[in-house]
Structure formats: C-alpha cells, structure tokens
Write the structure tokens for this entry.
Amino acid sequence: METIVFSTLNGVLYGLLLFMLSSGLTLIFSMMGVLNFAHASFYMLGAYFAYAIGATTGFWAAMLLAPILVAGVGALVERYGLRNVHRHGHVAELLFTFGIAFLIEEIVKLIWGRNPVPYSPPAVLQQPLFTLWGTQYPSFRVFMMIVAVLMFITLWLMLKKTRIGLIVQAALTHPHMVGHLGHNVPLVFMGVFAVGCGMAALAGVIGGALLVTDPAMALTLGPIVFVVVVVGGMGSLGGAFVASILIGLIQTFAVAVDASLSDLLARFGVMVSNRSDLGRITLAQVAPMLPFLLLVLVLIFRPRGLMGARES
Amino acid sequence: MSALVLTNVVKNFGAAQIIRDVSLEVPAGERHAIIGPNGAGKSTLFNLISGAFPPTSGEILVNGQKASGAPPFQINRSGLSRSFQVTNIFHNMSVYENVRCATLWALGHRYVFWRFISGMKDVEQRTEEILDLIGLAAVRETPAGLLSYADQRALEIGVTIAGGAKVILLDEPTAGMSHHETERAVALIRKVTEGRTLVIVEHDMSVVFGLADRISVLVYGQIIASGTPAEIRANKKVKEAYLGEEAA
Amino acid sequence: MSRTSTLRTLAVWVAFAAVLLVLPMVFTSRTSLTVMNVMGIWMVFALAYNMLLGQSGMLSFGHAVYFGLGGYAAIHLIVAIKAQRLGIPVFAVPLVGFMAGMAAGALIGWFSCRRSGTPFAMISLGIGELVAAAGFMFVSVFGGEEGISGDRSAGPRIFGLTLGPQIHVFYFIAFWMFVSTLAMWAFTKTPLGRLANAVRDNPDRVAFIGYDPQRIRFLVFLISGGFAGLAGALSAVNFEIINPETLGAQGSGAVLLMTFIGGAGVFYGPIIGAAIITFMQSMLSDFTKVWQLYLGLLFVVMVLFAPFGIGGMVARILGAVKRGELAEKLPGWLLGTLGGLTAFFGAVMVIEMAYRIREGGRPFRAFGRDFVHTSPLNWLLAGIIVAAGIAIVTIAVRWRQRGTLGAALRFREVAP
C-alpha cells in the first residue's frame, strides 16, 4: 500500500514534469509542423539560467526571470534560424534544431563545465510537508505539482479565453487563412515558439532543482519527451497528457517494484535461471527502457499514437 | 470487358457525404469526361478510383479486378494510371529520370538492385518514346522543378502514361493554361491515349466536347446524366444544374 | 551510358584504388595510419547513412545501432575464431557484420519504415536509446561497460595479411572501404537506387507509378543497415574491442554530422565529411578542449547557409569549370571564403577566451599575439572581426545576386 501511494504520487509528479515539456513541444509541432529537437535543451537552459540568476536574486525571482530569458533565446532561434530553413522542408528544420541542441549542450559545457552544478530548491521548500507511514514527503514536490497545474490552467485560459489564443488556435489549422485575415502569422509563430521554450524552461527551473543540473540533462530527458509525443499521437495535447502520466507511472512503478524478471516470468510459468542475463535483470534496471518499449508496441499496434488524429 | 466499373460507390468524410451512390461504366477504348461544378466531388471520385483513399461502400472494378480498398500501387498494377490536378512530379530529378522511374514497374523490373538501370534496353527505349511523345526530349537533363508550367504539365502526363496503363485518368490537365498551351495539351492527350481508355476531369468545355466520346455530369456527388456530347448538350437537367449556372 | 563516360568513370575508380594503395607510403607515421584507419571506417558508415538521408530522404537519429550490432557480430566471430580454431579468416569478418546489420535492419525497419519524415526520425531515436540501454543490460552478449575484446591476428590469413601491424589493418580497411564504396555507388545506378530518389522527392506519387514507397524505404533501410554493420565490423577489427556505447546516440549523431557537413546531395559528400571530421577530431582535440563546439557551430552554419555541404560546393566548382564559368565566379567565391574565415576566426577568439574564464590556463595565442580574456579590448576586437567577416560574406552574396561588385557595395538595391 505504502509503495503504491508513493509510487503513484511520484509517478504523477514525473508525468507532470514530462507534460510540462511535451505540451510546449506539441504546441510548437501542431502549429509549425516542426518537432523541436532542441526542446529539452531549452529545459536545460532554464535550469542553468535559474541557477545563475538565483545566485544573485534568489530562487523566486530566478523562477520568473529564467523562463522569460529562455523564451527570448527561443524567439531569436526562431526568427534568425528556423524561419530561414523552413523553405527547405521538415527534415532541414529537424536538422537545424538538432544542431541547436548540440550547440546548446556545448555552450553549457563551455560556461558551466561538465560537472553538475549545485542547484537546489530554496530552504523553505526543502522541509517535509507531510509524513505518511513514517516517510516524509518533501514540500518541493508538492510545489512542483502546483506550479505544473497552474501553468496548464494559464495555458488553457490563454488558448480559450483570449484573442491571441483564438488566433493561435485558428493558425494551428489554417495558417494561410489567418494570414489573409491580416494577422501577422510569422509573429504568432515566433510567439508560440518562444512560449513553448519558456514552458520548457519553467520545467527546467523545477526539474533541475528536483533532479540534477548537468550538461547531460537534456540528452537524458529529451528522447523520453519525444517518445511521449509520438506515443500520445503527434500534435495532440490530450494524447501528450495521457502519455506523460502513463510513462511517469510506468517508470516509477518499475523502479519501486523490486522484482527481477525471473520472478515476474515465473508468475507466467516461464522459468528463467537466476544466473542467466535475463534472470538477473531487475525490473528497476529495465525502467529506463520501458518508454521506448512502449513506443515500439504503440507503433506496431496503433501507428497513429494513442490519440493521434491521422496516420501520415 | 469494361475498363472501369463503379457500382453504388459512396464516400463519407465524417458526417458529410461527398460521393452519393455513384454507378458508372466505362467501356474499354472510350474517352469519357466527367464534368460538374466546383465541389461536386470530381477529384474525390478520382481519388477513390485510383486508391488514394477507400470508398465508404460500393465496389470499383478496374479491368475486371477489384480496386475498392486496394492501395494505389496495387490499382496501378492492374492497369490504371492517373495524373494530378496540382502538378505532382519528382522535382529534384531530371525529366529523363522522372519518366524512366515511371516505366520500371510495367516493364517488370520491380525492386531490382542488382542490375544497372542504364543496361536495361527496354527501359531506355520506352523512356525515349515517351519523351518524344510529350515533346520534352530537348530538356531531358533539366531538373523537373525548373521546367515551365506547361512543360511540367506535359511531364505530369508523361509520368502518368509511361507505365503503359490501359486506363488513364487525367485530372484537369489543362488547368491554368493559356489558350495556345491548351491546344497543344489537347493534341498531346489525343495522341497519348490512342487505343486506351481515358477518363478526364475538365473545366474547359471546348476541351471536353472536342475530346470526349461520352460525358458524365457530377453534381453534389451524384451523376445526374451520362451520354454523348450531343445528348448532354440537349439534357434539360444538365442545363439547369450546370450549364445554366455557368450562363447565369 | 556512352563509351567515353564509361571510360572516365573507370578511370576515377582506378585512381581511387591507386590513391588507397599509395597513401600509407606518403603518410608513414603511426599516428597518420591510425587516423586513416578510423577515417576509412567512418567513410563506409557515412556512405551507408547517406543512403537514407541523402538518397531516400530518411532522417535517422539511431543508425549507430546497426553499426554497433555489426561490430558485435564481428567481435564474437573473432573471439570464436581464436577459441574454437575456426577456419574462417578475420579478413572475411566484415561480411558477417554486413549480415548482422542487415538482419537488425530487417527486424527494426519492419515497423519503423511504415512511417516517414519526422515520425521516422523520432522512432529511430527511440529505438537507438532502447538498443543502447539493452546493450548495457545484457552483459553476456554485449560485455557490459568494458565491452568485448578479441584478437584479430588469429585464424587463417588472406593476401598474406596477419592483421597484426597497423599497415595490414590499413590495407584490410582500404580493401573493404573500396568494395563498399563501389557497391554503394553502383546501388545508386540501379532501379531501386533511382526509386529511392523518387521516394525522397515525392513518396505519394511513387505509389501511383506502381511502387509501394514503404517497401522501397524498407529495402534501402536493409541495405544501409548492412553497410553500417560492415563499418562496425571494420571498427571491431581495428580496435579489437567494442562496447555498448558504440550503439548509442553519440555515434548516431556523429555520422549525421559527417554526412551533412560533407554533403548529402552528392555521392562522395559523406567521404569528404568523414575525412574532415575524423581529422578534426584527432588533430583539433590537441589544440582545444572545445572542438565539439566548433563542430556544432559549423553544422548549424551549414544548415542555415550551405545545406548542400562541402561536397555540394565541390560539385558547384566542378560544374563551373565544366561550363567555363570559373573565372567569372571565382572572385565572388574567394571573397565569400575570406569573409567566412574572418568571421570564423572572430568566433574562435570569443570561444577560446570564454573557455579560459572558467578554466584559466595559458591565454589564447594566434598570429604571434596573446589574447587575454581579462582585457575588454580583446573582446571588442573579437566582436569587430566577427562583424567584419559577416559584412564581407554579405557583400560576396550580393555580388552574386546583383551582378557587379559596385552594386554589391551599395546599401540599397538599385533597379537596373
């Protein structure tokens, strides 16, 4: 019971973090048709910026400033980079964002070094919030959930209730029409790209403090975020949400259930020796592979993703 | 045997019914035109016949083989080839290469990767024939994307007929052409479809009435009349629904 | 193909073989042999990769999987040759690498080739991560962190090569590199090779000329996987060791950079890219710790301004020579190159000085002068150099667009 409650909490938490990233990615993808390979790099930039700014202003100001700065960087990347390669097609765009991801990682290494930086949540949030079965639950995790939920509510309200949101929604499906109506579609694109990057950075401000802030953090999380987007169905926000939570839960439960594969297979009547490779591997070890296994399964049995609209 | 038979074909997109119970039979060797106002479903009908997407219900036979539900390449192999309203060629490849690729399957070369393509005399010969036929032999090395619009349309037809399909579907082959270019295109279509079955969607009435043996009129996803050009001209329903509209 | 062009093609290949034979006599040092061996391996891998990227329009972020699996098949065979005293020469091991890469390609391509474009790219990335993670998990097959090592000098010999000394390994790699390059070049001249181009340009239309685009992608994927596996086997023989990292994202990224920078649009582009980047890797890493940053910068600049790559530039120059336009175009090109180099030098200054802010060390030295990062003047200078370089490039581009140098120097375009 204890394991189940904690794993669910942590799984949802991890899922929310994934969704903070994948929602921005999905927004950019469905709008511009570009899968931003550098999305997780902006997440990393968010963490590093918050660390650097926080050193002088403290955590709270940094939490506000870092995403804004990263959004600015994102806007520049869109304006002076992505927009120019757009005419060469999606593969060129993907290549460009791949290059940006590569470049950001190297620049981060250049400025902050290869080792993790000591970036941690403020003291207020490091105290335990409540205790369950003798285990303390850190308040920073709950804070993270609140931030994530607030971010989604803001995003939703912006999309549904504001004029800009309406234009964005229209531009998602009919960019040319929106352009003919006199709206500055390139500016809207730049704005969406910047906001998406800013959202990733906000995730980074929190994810960096929760997990670890090092130059490898983009490469660790990036592929999983892409899996989320493909599994959820490319371009579907609802799908991204379901897939984020699903992958969050799967991974946390796999880590929490300390069983080896041989135990698991034995339940199904398959006997594997404890000595063999397959028998020795624990479920926790398999955990990092599970999202990718899920990807393969989804591709074989439901190529358009969980909630994808079409297969193309 | 009829080249093309459609029986009670229906296509729905969501709640909208675009093709409503269309039945049509085109005998081999006929030049058949499909006309109708914008949004009548002509292009959708072509997409159904050529396999771009499957019909919701009904059956399509191409040269006696079931085509409804089959992928496009399967339908192409049963002897039906189509062109597109918006030029749809291989832009980064030369004119010669465009036509050559289109001849390969019909000549039985399939997915061959153990023989040089330049050593295939039948491919070379067929490609040269087609290039002469469509009048693009002089620009054979030009990348297709750099051709003039009229030449791209000619290449579109060349790619369509290169496989030697018995049934040819042409989707508005003269769209966007000047009067002079249209005349050239009609002569070309006449020449390349000799001895074959042609189904053509066209807006230019002079082209339709000059070329077609029979005409079908599609309005709101239904065929309201089918007959010889003279019969269609005299048909009251057609005048109301289509020609009348144009005159108004 | 006409007779003269056949002869010319033959001459190119003979010359290529002759260069391979002579190279180790020109560059005799142990270091250059080592570098050339690595180059050969990457050339095969990059050419295999370009069957996907350049020829079929498939962007893969996980092609190291096939390279690595080919390498593992090879190393296991090499180990077996020694342990079981098999009568198989190590010289033939690359064939096994080819088959392993192809088998892996068949298994994975079966579902990944159903998609194209961005989804295909994402899937390849996911598969790459999956296989790399599995590599670290199944210790008996992949050898865990340390990997698996073997002894290439075991087993019967071919051509009198023991494969012990570096020079033997050079000719071993050169032989397989030549054969693979020839085979992959020949592939582009076959119906399937041509259809791959058609799928790259317009997959939807391919379906209407009788071909299944998915099948074409799948077949190309198989063959590309095979040659990647062969390259992996060459690597296994060269290093006598292979570890699960070989399967991972780094190799996949490297081969993408090489292919693109070399030029995906021309057949020999990846060869150039592999040579240049392997050279950079071995030489530049002695001079600067941040050479990867330069690589990334080069890549991004090329995606933005020269997506045809270095090979594309070579093709343009050759084309100009053929048409007799070289004299007309050369000044503009030289000016552009000058501007590019200037801007690049400015960027180097910025990067090297930035590096020293955190790491310290001896100041950055160029043209007999030290540039100390603590002096703001040097930063200003670097900024000016970058700006000047960009200005020169802009003038060169406008020269081409507007026809004359005089017009290029004006700020606004004057209507002729």
